[in-house]
Specification:
The complex is a heterodimer of chains A (496) and B (230).
Chain A lengths: L11 H18 L9 H13 L6 H31 L4 H12 L2 H12 L3 H26 L3 H4 L7 H34 L7 H10 L3 H21 L5 H11 L8 H11 L13 H41 L10 H16 L2 H12 L3 H24 L11 H35 L7 H10 L3 H28 L10
Chain B lengths: L1 H8 L3 E12 L2 E12 L3 E5 L6 H11 L4 E4 L11 H6 L8 H9 L3 H14 L14 H13 L5 E5 L7 H14 L2 E5 L3 H7 L2 E6 L2 E7 L5 H8 L3
Parallel strand pairs in B: 3-6, 3-7, 4-5, 5-6
Antiparallel strand pairs in B: 1-2, 7-8
Helix pairs in contact in B: 5-6
Chain lengths: 496, 230
């Protein structure tokens, strides 16, 4: 009898090999056609647009910029409050499961659901950001609480209870909590922009129009505003000013929705019930199985397969780009001046949402998986490269260490490789989530079928498909967590 | 007057161990421990480092859970809070969560007066509003003692509570501990302090109790044998 090999997937080398092999196998099946025949000319026009941005209407641009910020501020405030409350209960498996589920569903999918419930309203956008972000923050806060030094708490007369928590655990965890929250705020701004692509009045709304119509000068103006907002965050987003900004956001964009109770009630009691079960007193199993089989064959299976193919291919590109790019932000390779240029490039690539990059890629290259893979690789590669470059700065090399390529391969890469794998495994789930929603742009991942189901008002299908996407993400999250533990990789949350 | 307490309460056993075996991180460090401690006693545990003083103290604390003021060897303070708040933590269990949260945001008058008095006695009143990670080792240790005193229990368990203090401060702090507690059990490496402050000394060696005698009956040889290797 064969015994299961015990040394399977437990070294960085084996893990890298397995991930690369899976990705290459996926690439063989990926649709990488370039169907647009004028990609070069279009790229040139985009370049011209970037050189000559046209701020066509300052009031419209300002309004959409403020709306973008208002969604992000309100969404984050709600997410941080709810995430904190959930983190207090994070020791319960049911709470952990709930958090994993709500963060496994992308904010765009939540937005599609909330738009059905509350119309195209501020409330829908705010909740779409707040819900998945609450799940993520609850996890991070919960883990930070667990990792705090237990000694101060254990020295008290009663170590359990709320008082002990606010005097020991909370102050010990507060700094990393705030750091992570401000990093997530930057993510929330990206999410808020992307919500514009499905109709909410943020920067993304006008970006989609301008890009779609080929008005690249207009699009460039919006792009520069987007970059200016994210890059300037560190100067104006101060803890003490946050309540003031939040209040301003609530006045500027009151979080109201269109409450049509009959509509909302019908959504839950009728629309999302699988079609064969609606209006029937007894459960018709044959019809239900038939419905499920048909949906599986036509939508779920092809959607899941192309989501997996695309995301694994994108993971490989992310890995390759981050390993190529991290020296740009590493003091082992470049002087501070050159490094600031290199990191500037990484920051720009990281600031542009994957969804926007994929949208631009589709305009240039035509519909296939290629633009999506490039967009995901570019964005996530830049994030990992930035963090890895900063991490490599902490390495102390001997004075006579070799330079150039030899330094990269013999001195630095071996030392940062485990950190690289830890970060890559973190991004794996993010890439999978993003892959699913890129389907909304017309690539055949789960998002394509979900978006179609919403357009056809088949909410029962949409819910089932969103559930599938959620479980796919939870599966990858679990697998990545297992691998990180198995390889003893760093498990502290990434922060910027 | 202190002797009075001892004799009055001597017949009331606080805790007793009978042939107990204690381990630290899975390794047995103490065997055949049999002892009875009565309310009102002032007990010193002495012995070389690694002789099991801390293990024994931790075990005693677990037996008397939530009735003892506890001062560990490592201060275990919350570095980003002030000395005031670290001392206040000793009294968390006496007050409501709401009161505690208010006091965290802005120190309230009653605890402020109580803790100011304690800090004065510990000679750290000028350090009270600083973050404790800016304080020296000795100052941090006095904050930890303040936290234990503010627990306001009748029994005090301390693991080398004055190890980082100079002789002058060490004696004034130890007499403060005796003043505020009926029963005191201390692990001490300074045998002179043990003799002066406590009325009973338990010597630990080789994982066993080497002697357990009233302070005045412990000889210098007995103490010396604890510290020399076989």
């Amino acid at each position: 009898m064969m015994t299961r090999p015990v040394n399977f997937l437990n070294t960085p080398r084996q893990l890298s090999f397995a991930l690369a092999l899976a990705a290459i196998a996926c690439l063989l099946f990926a649709d990488l056609d370039i169907s647009a025949n004028q990609a070069g000319r279009e790229l040139l026009r985009m370049g011209q647009g970037l050189i000559a941005p046209n701020f066509w209407s300052l009031s419209t641009i300002a309004h959409s910029a403020f709306t973008t910020l208002a969604f992000a501020l309100q969404g984050m405030a709600l997410a941080a409050t709810a995430g904190f409350a959930l983190a207090l209960l994070y020791r319960f498996a049911a709470v952990r499961g709930f958090c994993a589920f709500i963060r496994a569903i992308h904010e765009l999918f939540w937005a599609l659901i909330f738009i059905q419930l509350f119309g195209l309203s501020p409330l829908a956008g705010l909740l779409a950001i707040a819900l998945p972000y609450a799940g993520t923050l609850a996890k991070i806060y919960g883990e930070l609480f667990e990792e705090t030094d237990a000694a101060p708490r254990n020295n008290l007369l009663r170590s359990a209870g709320f008082s002990a928590f606010v005097y020991t655990t909370l102050p010990l965890a507060l700094r990393p909590m705030l750091q992570y929250t401000s990093y997530r705020f930057e993510c929330a701004i990206r999410s808020s922009i992307v919500l514009g692509f499905i109709g909410l009045p943020t920067l993304g709304y006008h970006l989609e129009t301008a890009l779609g119509n080929g008005q690249y000068n207009d699009a460039a103006a919006l792009l520069y505003v987007l970059l200016a907002i994210v890059v300037s965050l560190r100067w104006w987003l101060k803890k003490a000013l946050f309540p003031f900004f939040l209040l301003a956001a609530c006045i500027y964009l009151p979080p109201t929705g269109q409450f049509n109770w009959a509509n909302i009630l019908r959504f839950f009691s009728e629309d999302i019930i699988p079609a064969p079960l609606r209006h029937s007193v007894s459960i018709d199993f044959a019809a239900l199985v038939n419905w499920l089989c048909l949906l599986w064959q036509q939508q779920i299976a092809p959607g899941v397969v192309s989501t997996l193919i695309l995301s694994q291919s994108a993971l490989l590109l992310t890995a390759a780009l981050s390993l190529c790019w991290f020296p740009l932000n590493s003091k082992q390779f470049f002087s501070p001046l050159k490094r600031s240029v290199g990191d500037g490039f990484l920051i720009i690539a990281r600031t542009l949402p994957e969804y926007l990059l994929a949208f631009i890629g589709l305009l240039l290259l035509g519909p296939s998986m290629l633009p999506a893979i490039l967009a995901l690789g570019l964005h996530n590669g830049a994030i990992i490269a930035h963090l890895l470059g900063r991490f490599s700065g902490n390495i102390a090399l001997r004075d006579d260490a070799c330079t150039g390529k030899n330094r990269y391969f013999y001195e630095v890469l071996p030392r940062v490789y485990r950190q690289f794998l830890a970060l890559l495994l973190y991004r794996w789930e993010v890439i999978m989530r993003e892959t699913a929603i890129l389907g909304i742009l017309g690539i055949g991942t789960l998002g394509f079928y979900i978006d179609s189901a919403f357009e056809e008002f088949r909410f029962d299908r949409a819910m089932l498909l969103i559930g599938c996407a959620a479980f796919l993400n939870m599966g990858v999250d679990g697998l990545a967590h297992w691998l990180r533990k198995r390889l003893h990789l760093n498990t502290t949350p990434e922060t910027l | 007057m202190l002797n009075n307490i001892t004799t009055e309460a001597a017949n009331e056993p606080l805790l007793s161990l009978n042939n107990t075996r204690l381990s630290y991180q899975g390794v047995a460090v103490l065997q055949d421990i049999t002892l009875t401690i009565a309310a009102g006693e002032r007990v010193a545990l002495v012995g070389r480092s690694g002789s099991g003083k801390s293990t024994l103290l931790k075990h005693l604390r677990s037996l008397l859970a939530q009735q003892v003021a506890w001062c560990p060897q490592q201060p275990g303070l919350v570095p980003m809070l002030s000395g005031y708040h670290n001392i206040y933590m000793g009294g968390l269990a006496r007050r409501s969560a709401f009161y505690n949260v208010c006091n965290l945001i802005k120190p309230l008058a009653t605890p402020r007066a109580e803790i100011a008095k304690l800090a004065n006695q510990l000679d750290i009143d000028d350090q009270l509003l600083k973050r404790v990670d800016n304080l020296s080792g000795g100052q941090q240790q006095r904050i930890a003692i303040g936290r234990a005193l503010y627990q306001q229990q009748k029994i005090f368990l301390g693991d080398e509570p004055v190890s980082a203090l100079d002789s002058f401060h060490a004696y004034s702090v130890l007499s403060l501990l005796i003043h505020y507690h009926d029963t005191v059990i201390l692990a001490l490496h300074d045998t002179e302090q043990a003799r002066k402050v406590c009325n009973r000394i338990i010597g630990l060696k080789g994982g066993r109790i080497a002697f357990d005698l009233p302070s005045e009956l412990v000889s210098c040889e007995q103490l010396n044998t604890l510290y020399c290797s076989e």
